[in-house]
Amino acid sequence: MPPIDTSPEIILLWALLGYIIGSIAFGMVLARVMGLGNLRSIGSGNIGATNVLRTGNKKAAALTLLLDGAKGAVAVLLARAFAGEDAAQVAALGAMIGHCYPIWLGFRGGKGVATFLGILLALAWPVGLACCAAWAVAAALSRISSMGALAAAASSTFFMVLFGYGEMLLLGIALTLLIFWRHRDNISRIRAGTESRIGQKG
Predict the structure, then answer these.
(1) Quick one: how far is CA 32 from the chain centroid?
(2) What distances in angstroms separate CA 79 from CA 113, 170, 200, one per listed residue?
(3) What is the phi-psi region of residue 10: left when phi exceeds 0, alpha when psi lies from -120 to 50, beta otherwise?
(4) Rounded distance, CA 132 to CA 63, Å?
(5) pLDDT at residue number 28
(6) CA–CA separation, 199 and 56 (whole Å)
(7) Which long-range contacts (CB under 8 A, 24 or more apart) does 44-47 make?
(8) Which residues, including other chains, have CB under 8 Å from residue 83's CB and lie 6 or more apart?
(9) By the 8 A CB rule, do 31 and 37 touch?
(10) Cβ(37)–Cβ(12) below 8 Å
(11) What's the chain's average pLDDT?
């Protein structure tokens, strides 16, 4: 097996490839293909699974969730296979940024929760599973999707340390900050008691 090329040029290439993979807007694609309308004019106007659910189509929402998670995982696994762990982490960050700020949607993308969880499952599955559990518990207790997202992100670096993935901490911090930044309006609505509940339309 030939040695893995970890030159800066290759690492940068994987960051770009991760961005391209991450910027595929599956929510928009599925909404158009399944005749659900323009997501920008529905609910929060977001392109993620939570807003797709507001169309009333649970199948489309589930597919969006799975595909948005899968694209983060694919970016990581491809980079790891061809260029090693450093490239995998860089591709992970690229995929997350691509989902949140896709160039072909005017840098107006999603909030990155499914992609974040897909990335963690591919990078370190114990951390990913623990964060999925944190999301599920917080979302179930509060009936607020964004609460689940914030809980998963806030706990991710703790789980990285707990399960022995300290080399991922910088990436974990970056992803957590990005999740919180993308949810800044949700945080304001949670504080005001006006945040939408899971399954609520409009």
Answers:
(1) 21
(2) 21, 18, 38
(3) alpha
(4) 17
(5) 86
(6) 8
(7) 44/196, 46/110, 46/111, 47/105, 47/109, 47/110
(8) 4, 5, 6, 10, 11, 14
(9) yes
(10) no
(11) 90
Amino acid at 22: G
Sign of torsion over alpha carbons 103, 113, 65, 47: negative
Cα distance between residue 39 and residue 62, in whole Å: 15
Q: Which residues, other chains included, contact 41 with Cβ-Cβ below 8 Å and sequence gap of 6+?
A: none
* Of residues 36, 40, 43, the one with CA closest to residue 63: 36
pLDDT at res. 56? 76
pTM, to two decimals: 0.90
DSSP 138-159: HHHHH--HHHHHHHHHHHHHHH
Identify the H or E element spanning 134.
helix 125-142
CA atoms 202, 106, 17, 186: torsion sign: negative
SS3 42: coil
